[in-house]
């Protein structure tokens, strides 16, 4: 009996299929990555409209990322109309709460998210939001995450005292 083996990437993200004759096995492949690829840039802290999968960009994020953990960061959260505005402040007594995502396909997602947030040279300057790295904590650890921080004056914006956009 000759063993016929085929291997293919299954349509579901990260899932692969191998066939041994008529037997099908599904498995996940962990790709070896160099140390330069294993950096904190793989994480994104989300605290507002990107949390909603009914939002196209929230659904896109969920397609290209895995939820890593609930998270919180020192700062203040404001209501800026149809979306929240985070201003981080390591000296603040207040916390802003959200979720940390581990990005799987960074090159595909940053362009889309930057466009959604109006970040980059193609948008009016100064950008309303800027993408920056900040320390975000979970219940077990603190790690460096990218986040979109409000970049304009918050002087006339209402403060969301709970630090949770969904409760405003």
UniProtKB/TrEMBL annotation:
It holds the Pfam family GGACT. Keywords: Transferase. Residues 44-165 form the Gamma-glutamylcyclotransferase AIG2-like domain. SUPFAM superfamilies: Gamma-glutamyl cyclotransferase-like. GO terms for molecular function: transferase activity. The keyword tRNA-binding does not apply. This is Gamma-glutamylcyclotransferase. It comes from Pararcticibacter amylolyticus.
